[in-house]
Amino acid sequence: MGGGGFTDRSRPPDRAVLTVNLQKIRNFSIIAHIDHGKSTLADRILEITGALSAREMSSQVLDSMALEQERGITIKAASVRLTYRAADGGDYIFNLIDTPGHVDFHYEVSRSLTACEGALLIIDATQGIQAQTLANAYLALEQDLVIIPVINKIDLPSADPDRVITQVEEVLGLGGEECLMVSAKEGVGVAELLEAIVERVPPPQGDPEAPTRALIIDSWFDSYQGAVPLVRVFEGCIRKGDLVKFMSTRSEHQILDVGMFTPHPAELGVLGPGEVGFLTAAIRDVSDTKVGDTVTLTRSPAETPIPGFQEPKAMVFSGLYAADSGDFENLRSALDKLQLNDSAFTFEPETSGALGFGFRCGFLGLLHMDIIRERLEREFDLTLIFTAPTVVYRVVLNDGFVEEIESPARLPDLSRVDHIEEPFILGTILVPSEYVGAIMKLTQEKRGVQRSMEYLDPQTVQLVYELPFSEILFDFYDKLKSITRGYASFDYEHLTFRTSDVVKLDILLNEQPVDAFSTIIHKEKAYYYGRALTGRMRKLIPRQMFEVIIQAAVGNRVIARETIKALRKDVTAKCYGGDITRKRKLLEKQKEGKKRMKNIGTVEVPQEAFMAVLDVGREVS
Q1: Domain ranges, residue 144
Q2: Could you count the other beta carbons within 10 Å of the beta carbon of residue 86?
Q3: Would strands 146-152 and 118-124 be described as parallel, antiparallel, or unpaired?
Q4: Which end of the chain has the smaller Cβ count within 10 Å, N or C?
Q5: Which CATH number covers residue 147?
Q6: CA pair distance 444, 446, nearest whole angstrom
Q7: What is the band of 64 on the pLDDT scale with cuts at 50, 70, 90?
Q8: Which carries the bigger pLDDT value, residue 417 or residue 64?
């Protein structure tokens, strides 16, 4: 819900005192696979509890970014405080925490779930349990949350709720009688769902007199207020005017405002145990408010932070350059502004001989990279060149020293290298049984090793594979959807680093390496990748006044070569007859000129050639 100015504030009480009964609070999250109706259900809950008027309602209210609404995904966590009058006549406070669903934001989801006592697990009645459904359900079970299984889209003709109930019982071990039948779009069953939240989700625990400990669920940057953390208080209280400390960064700030989202921002005097709200303290740097960090009071700090905090770590890296070199400063400014709202995104300057000045950017995953690229092009009107994405490799040198490199250009001289390790992931694929053979063939091509195969029901199979992370960078998901006609779902978690036979592949233009085309690739695929890329570049690089030789090389060994013939002027056209030696003299003179030009000339590489690296990666992988 971040990014906007705080309006519609109610006046805070004169004395900041606790007025909320812990027994009347219910903190819960909604988790689901992509496109199973999570945001639509959140809309219905807001509508039924009267949080927004009919005039204010729109689809995907909690997905405030245009990109979220267009793609139908949740990128940033959001929170809303609702008041609900239950059938028992009591007024309850619901803190609904909407979480991202994609694997790239796994850590953010885990922190949001830590802030809850319960979770609504949404399952599409037409598709059944999917890969991310399983991943999120296991995450909630690890946090000891009460899970309420919700079977959504029961109004559709192809819905098969009985099959989904069987899957819930056999796969998740939850009772079929616990499942609620809902159509979020039509509003069917949502009232019964709200009653189930009151009955099944336990109230939060916490001592208001204990040393303060609050968990940062998310943070964003506001142009007027600075960095704004969204927090869940576990113990103690946070009041306006308190001096607080963030335990991981050790930075201290004085609280200017304490508030909540209803979903409109509104001021409170105090946040007590079990409550979720935002803080403002004129924090200039969003990196001071790290997701998962613990907030405590400076005057009486807590002894230990809330467990589970991790520094966000980039897993995918890519070079980013402005297509027009004059836009370099605009690109730097755009990256600075994006980083204000996304501390997991990192960048540092780098220089390429072919592309000039640019940045080496780090992302949580491929979706995160795609989102950043689209936001840069859409919000800042930039035309960009991305180099092929790479993962982090661990290079063990002969002296035992370990280096982590994310760019082929930083690979040390191979004579100093003992071995190279690449990251592996544990991938879970859920697929109809008739496509198992095609999946096995695809994973073998990607150097996958099968860990298990299990039938969830007669029609659905769960395959678990160990795969090199680099193999799923380009097109694994696209091929998976293609060979299964869209029925397969895929989720993964990072596993470990393993020794692998990888090499650095360089592309040379007239014997000069072009660093933007360099890549680290498995030895078995280097030849096919080099052949495909040189062939594609021969078609994309325009003919010059001199011959252009394109080579793919591993170390000093050239493994593929293509030649672009020179443009040739007919220098003998002015000769009308006469001795052949005259024509030969002109041709020799032209040949010498071409040779000189080749030595001093530079090859113009169009933007399409750099984009071809991504296409070739998809074809070969």
Answers
A1: 22-200
A2: 15
A3: parallel
A4: C
A5: 3.40.50.300
A6: 5
A7: very low
A8: 417
